[in-house]
Amino acid sequence: MTTTLRPHDLLWLGARDALEGVTEPWVDEVWHAGLPVVVRRDVVQDGRIPVGVRGLRRDQRAAGWVRPERITRIVSPEQLVAPLELLRSPFISQPPVQLAAQLAQQNWPWIWGVTGSTGYALATGIPVIHATSDLDLLIRAPQPLSPVEFSRWQQQLSGGLCRADTQLETPNGGFALAEWLRDGRAMLKTNHGPRLVSDPWYREA
């Protein structure tokens, strides 16, 4: 497999035994190979990809590992925001999907996508969202961006349909847009743990 996997990508596996290192008993009860796992942040071990497993409840989260050759399908957050697909979604009556559909009708100077429970629902058709669910968004930011560039984006999110949180993904890690706009610095999530930074794009030696 030559595709570069990134945090928040959803992966489908060929079989249960493709999921390694998971010991939580609920996983064998609710998870099967028809459900995706999500790429999480961690240091790759022996070529294995760090992934997380989602259960039926919010407290059911487990960390594990997957060998790349066992992956049968990949869906990235940006693949879930095609305008027509959002409008045809069985969840279009839910506020998070409505807001995502509104964003998808506009042109933005960056690549963006949907993560979290809304992304999981859109990718699987499983109703894990409801009227009070949040919308978790991701913006690909390989190059530095200015806070002023996000005024229209933030205005769109403040329309009241639902709570929405945006994470920017840089080559160094991901950080919360709202925190950066408010404080001028952010907690950057990296494969080696979080660190507080004022410039999320600056790579330390």
Q: Given the C-alpha coordinates, what overall shape results?
A: globular
The poorly predicted ranges are none
Number of helices: 6
Number of strands: 12
Helix coverage percent: 10-25%
Termini separation comes to 30 Å
Q: Which structural class do you get from the secondary structure elements?
A: alpha+beta
**Can you summarize the main beta sheet?**
6 strands, antiparallel
Round the Cα radius of gyration to an integer and report it.
17 Å
Percentage of residues in strands: 25-35%
User: What average pLDDT do the residues reach?
Assistant: 93
Q: In what order do the strands lie side by side in the largest sheet?
A: 2-5-4-3-1-6
- Give the SSE order as H and E letters: EEHEEEEHHEHEHEEHEE
Write the layout of secondary structure elements.
Layout: E1 10-13, E2 19-20, H1 25-30, E3 37-39, E4 49-54, E5 61-66, E6 71-75, H2 83-88, H3 95-104, E7 112-115, H4 116-124, E8 135-140, H5 151-157, E9 164-170, E10 173-176, H6 177-183, E11 186-190, E12 193-197
Parallel strand pairs: 8-9
Antiparallel strand pairs: 1-3, 1-6, 2-5, 3-4, 4-5, 7-8, 9-10, 11-12
Structure notes:
The structure is a single chain. With 205 residues, the protein is an alpha+beta fold. It has six helices and twelve strands. The protein has helices at residues 25-30, 83-88, 95-104, 116-124, 151-157, 177-183, and strands at 10-13, 19-20, 37-39, 49-54, 61-66, 71-75, 112-115, 135-140, 164-170, 173-176, 186-190, 193-197. The strands form three sheets. The chain has a six-stranded antiparallel beta sheet, with no helix packed on it. Strands 7-8-9-10 form a four-stranded mixed beta sheet. Strands 11-12 form a two-stranded antiparallel ribbon. The radius of gyration is 17 Å and the shape is globular. The two termini are 30 Å apart. The relative contact order is 0.13.
